[in-house]
Each structure stands twice: as C-alpha cells, then as structure tokens.
C-alpha cells in the first residue's frame, strides 16, 4: 500500500508544499551477505522525504492455505518494530525489505486506516491532494483493505468508508461540499462505475496548468454516509457486471475512487500600523471567504501478476 500527497496546484516533484509527515526511518546500511533491500519507491523517495510512504500488510492465511501449508515453515517473517519484512529463500538465505509501516496479519482494519490513510485524509482536509493505492497479487486483500463496507461487522470497514466518515465529520454541510466519482481503468479505457453506459471517458490534460480532468465522469454529491455506502455498492455491482460482460475479472482492472472536497475557508489578514509616536498596532481583518479545493484518490490496483496480461499499466 502506498500513499502520496501534494498540494493542489503544486508542481509534481516539488517539495515546496510538502506536509511535514513523520520523517521516514533511515535505511540501515546493508550488512554483508544479509540481502538487505528496500522497495523501489522508498529509494526514489529519498530525494523528497515524507512524500510517498509505503506500508505492507500481511493477510491472514485462509482455511485452504492453512491446510496446504501445514507441513511447511512460514517463509515470511515480519519485524514490525524494525519496520522490516524478511523473506526466507531457504534455511540459510533471506532477503530483507524495509517499509514505512509493517502491519501483521492481526492488524485490525482500524489500525490499518489510522496508520496508512488517516494522515492522508487529514492533509486532504487541509487542502492537499492525496492518494492511497493498494498493490499486490490477486487475493492478497487489496479490496478488503480499501473497499470493505462493513455492513454486518462495522469493525471490518475499509479505508474508503472510514475516510468518508472522517471527511463528513470534519466538513460543514452548510458551506462545504463533497462529490465523488468512481471509475475503472481497463485496457487503457476508462469506464464509469456509476453509469455503465459511460464506458469511454476521455482524459484531458490542460496544457497550461497540467491539470488532468475527466469530462463526462459522473460526479455524485455526498451528504451522508448512507448515500456514500449506496454509491460504493452500485460501483461494485457495476464493476462485477462490466467485467462479466468483458469476460474479465475485477482483478485485471484498476478501480479509482476520487473524493473532491470544496471547503470554504476564511483567511485573516494581519494589518500592521505604526502610530506617529512609534507604537505598532495589529488589526486582524478577516478577508472574504475562499473556496479551497482538494481531492483524495483511492486506487484498488489490478492484481500485480495480471498487469502484462491485461495491458493495464
Ligand atoms: N486482512 C484480512 N483479514 C481477513 N480476511 C481477509 C483479509 N484480507 C483479505 N481477506 C480475504 O481474502 C480474500 C481475498 O481478498 P481480496 O478480494 O480483498 O483480494 P484482492 O487483492 O483485492 O484480490 P483481486 O486482485 O483478485 O481483486 C477475500 O475473501 C477477503 O475477505
């Protein structure tokens, strides 16, 4: 899972508007022969600390895997306190990977949300753009982590539902607004999961600002959690239906939920004046309200082993 932040309107790659997230742990020096490695994104991120964070979550074994693996030792060893994952190749050799967060198979959905997504949601509410992406092979728990509705068991609510709860709690319904689009990318084609007839949405890039827009994608106003859950249900049903029609599986397409926030903010102006006798006085004058726009993007990526087969990159 990865999360990323940048301020609306800021250049990609610019550190200027970075939110000061908790500093990344520094990589230890590789010890000879230990096979110490770091994920690629962590290496890239050294240039701009805190911008991209990568967490790994281990899914608990299901009943079938418990049976099949009964006689074998576990080849994955998590070291959450060191934020490392050790992958055993054989009895004498292993590779070690370092992450920003390592979540064991007993980590709750609440903990995963708080560690991975909540800092991104808080930044989005502060006016930054943020993305949370789940990456992994089919069946590793991407949809469970992001999209679980938790209707029977509220403790299983995933990142999408928990994010919207926090967003709706923080915004003022009188002055602010939340709209949502839900799309699927398959074979370079964008399909609208909220309106299946809309199955070839163009991607338009403003040559001046570099802003990307998706004209024609359905945008739904969200007023309460119930309407958001209904929207997720519709999106999921359309995803299954679209994939059945195309004779594919959900794991071959990327699903992308975008939450657009418009927030009314009043910034005050500090007017400093100096009197004739040299006394300095400050007058805090509220300026007229501004509308601050930001967005949260939650991406359920195609199963990582399918990418070449599906042509989705
Ligand atoms: N942390 C977890 N705890 C309990 N069950 C889990 C967990 N993660 C995943 N599962 C279960 O494992 C199965 C596969 O998970 P899921 O469908 O989320 O995988 P996926 O990575 O999204 O797969 P695909 O790429 O095929 O869409 C589901 O039955 C899900 O309920």
Automatic annotation (TrEMBL):
GO terms for cellular component: microtubule; microtubule associated complex. Residues 1-48 are annotated as: Disordered. Residues 51-313 form the Kinesin motor domain. ATP binds at residues 136-143. Belongs to the TRAFAC class myosin-kinesin ATPase superfamily. Kinesin family. It comes from the Eukaryota. GO terms for biological process: microtubule-based movement; mitotic spindle organization; spindle elongation. Keywords: ATP-binding, Microtubule, Motor protein, Nucleotide-binding. One of its GO terms (molecular function) is microtubule binding. InterPro entries: Kinesin-like_fam (IPR027640), Kinesin_motor_CS (IPR019821), Kinesin_motor_dom (IPR001752), Kinesin_motor_dom_sf (IPR036961), P-loop_NTPase (IPR027417). It comes from Trifolium subterraneum (Subterranean clover). It holds the Pfam family Kinesin. This is Kinesin-like protein. PANTHER family: CHROMOSOME-ASSOCIATED KINESIN KIF4A-RELATED, KINESIN-LIKE PROTEIN.
């Amino acid at each position: 899972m990865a999360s990323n932040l940048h301020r609306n309107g800021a250049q990609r790659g610019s550190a200027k508007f970075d939110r000061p997230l908790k500093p990344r742990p520094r990589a230890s020096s590789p010890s000879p022969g230990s096979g110490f490695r770091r994920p690629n994104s962590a290496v890239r991120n050294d240039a701009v600390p805190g911008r991209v964070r990568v967490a790994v979550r281990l899914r608990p074994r299901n009943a079938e895997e418990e049976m099949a693996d009964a006689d074998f030792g576990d080849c994955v060893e998590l070291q959450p306190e060191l934020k490392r994952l050790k992958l055993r190749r054989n009895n004498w050799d292993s590779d070690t990977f370092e992450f920003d967060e390592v979540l064991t198979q007993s980590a709750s959905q609440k903990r995963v949300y708080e560690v991975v997504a909540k800092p991104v949601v808080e930044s989005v509410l502060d006016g930054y753009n943020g993305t949370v992406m789940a990456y992994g092979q089919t069946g590793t728990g991407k949809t469970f982590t992001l999209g679980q509705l938790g209707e029977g068991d509220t403790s299983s609510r995933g990142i999408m539902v928990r994010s919207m709860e926090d967003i709706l709690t923080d915004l003022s319904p009188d002055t602010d607004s939340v709209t949502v689009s839900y799309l699927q990318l398959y074979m370079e084609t964008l399909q609208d999961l909220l309106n299946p007839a809309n199955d070839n949405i163009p991607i338009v890039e403003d040559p001046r600002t570099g802003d990307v827009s998706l004209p024609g994608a359905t945008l739904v106003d969200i007023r309460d959690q119930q309407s958001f859950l209904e929207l997720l249900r519709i999106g999921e049903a359309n995803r299954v239906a679209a994939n059945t029609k195309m004779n594919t599986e959900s794991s071959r397409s990327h699903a992308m939920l975008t939450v657009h926030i418009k927030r009314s903010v009043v910034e005050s102006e500090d007017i400093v004046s100096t009197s004739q006798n040299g006394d300095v006085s400050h007058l805090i004058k509220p300026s007229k309200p501004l509308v601050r726009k930001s967005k949260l993007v939650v991406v359920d990526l195609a199963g990582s082993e399918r990418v070449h087969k599906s042509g989705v990159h």
